[in-house]
Design goal:
By secondary structure, the protein is of the alpha+beta class. Helix content is 17%, strand content 24%. The protein has one domain: N-terminal domain of TfIIb (Single Sheet). The protein has 1 helix and 4 strands, in the order αββββ.
């Protein structure tokens, strides 16, 4: 899925799950900008990890348009990205 499609899917998820589009816990505004999905590297790898790639945690940053506060949504949990197959 390309970044534009990802952003659209994140916005759809927010619209259907956040009450009143949510308010920023820092400034109180509700003007959010959706960014593309990024993968955060995990620094602690499970002992039973057998894959050759390094595990990552895909998140969708959602940024307050007024103060810059960032919320990271789990991209797999909200359906924007599929879990990696082992």
């Amino acid at each position: 899925m390309d970044p534009k499609e990802q952003a659209t899917k994140v916005k759809e998820w927010i619209d259907s799950h956040w009450r009143g589009r949510g308010r920023c816990p820092r400034c109180g505004e509700g003007n959010w900008t959706v960014k593309y999905v990024v993968s955060l590297p995990l620094t602690a790898v499970p002992a039973d990890w057998t894959r050759t790639d390094h595990p990552v945690f895909p998140v969708a940053p959602v940024v307050c348009g007024k103060c810059g506060y960032v919320i990271f949504l789990d991209a797999i949990a909200i359906g924007v990205q599929r879990a990696a197959e082992g």
